[in-house]
Design goal:
- The chain is 35% helix and 20% strand.
- The protein has 164 residues and is an alpha/beta fold.
- It has a single domain, classed as Rossmann fold.
- Helix 1 links the parallel strand 1 and strand 2.
- The N and C termini lie far apart (31 Å).
Length: 164
Amino acid sequence: MSPRIVLFGYGNPSRGDDALGPALVACARLWLAEHPDASVALFEDFQLQVEHALDLADADLALFVDADASTPAPFGLRRVQAARDSSYTTHELSPEAVLYVAREVTGRDPPPAWVLGVRGEQFELGDPLSDAAERHLELAWAALQEMLEAPDVAVWDQRAHDTA
C-alpha cells in the first residue's frame, strides 16, 4: 500500500490569489478520481486550526498548501518541523504549530511535513485569481502531481532543495 498523504489546502477563495491553496486541492481531487489506489486525504479550510492536528493521525507524509506573497514566483517548497510558535494559542495556526499540537495530543512524532507556498499577488475581497497566480497554479500543480506520484521523503526533500 502506498504511503498515506495528508494534503491541507487553505485560504479564502473570495480573496483573489488567497484561493491558491483550495485551487490546488481541487486539482488533487480530480487527480484522485483518476488514481483510486492513491492514499491521499484532502482537507480544505480558510485557515489552519487546532482541530487539523487530528487529521494527521496515521499519516506518513503531510503537505500544507497556501498562497504566499513573499515566496519567489512561481512557488516554493520547504520542509517544516513541529514547533510551538506564537500561533499556538490563536484561532489560526501555522503548519509548524499544527504539527506541534499533533505531537502533544497523540504523544507521537507527526509525519514528515512540507509547505508548498504558491506566489500570490492580489488578495482583495471579491477578486478572482490574478493572471500571474493562474500561471503559478499551473506550475505548482505540475510539481504537486509529481510529488503525489512519488510519495517518498527523499523525493520530496530533493524537490524542496531544488526550489530553494
